[in-house]
Amino acid sequence: DEKYDFIIANYIMEHVLDSSLVLRKFTEIIKPDGYVFIVVPNANAFSRRLAVNMGLLTDLEELTENDKKHGHRRVYNIDIIKNELISTGWQVVETKGIIFKILADFQLNKLLKDNFLTEEHILGLQKLADDNETFCDSIFVVAKRKSFG
Description:
With 149 residues, the protein is an alpha+beta fold. The chain has helices at 19-29, 46-53, 65-69, 78-87, 105-113, 119-131; strands at residues 4-10, 30-41, 90-98, 138-145.
């Protein structure tokens, strides 16, 4: 019976069987003026676009082996997550991109391990994300429960 002010769904929506069902459940347990904060992987990430152009993926929504290994069932783009939220009783308040991702995780990890990528690189990639949310690694969405009445 308890209602919550905030729900944080950080990299979970891509794992669940029925993400619309989860979002509808969130509307049942959130206070009328409550917010949900969601982070999901972005199908339009620069790194995925590069993989398509290299022939490693056939399309932007195809799951990589790494996605499957981690239990992903889908990837999102900004329109998909916004439409899913709106259709399940939410009003999108804000969207942002999280890091402008230029390469695959394993490549970035190697560059970090070898000290090739620096903190300045990472901060610069985040600044790029602020202006280019479409191509970021992940999408951050803030949504408010729709008011009825």
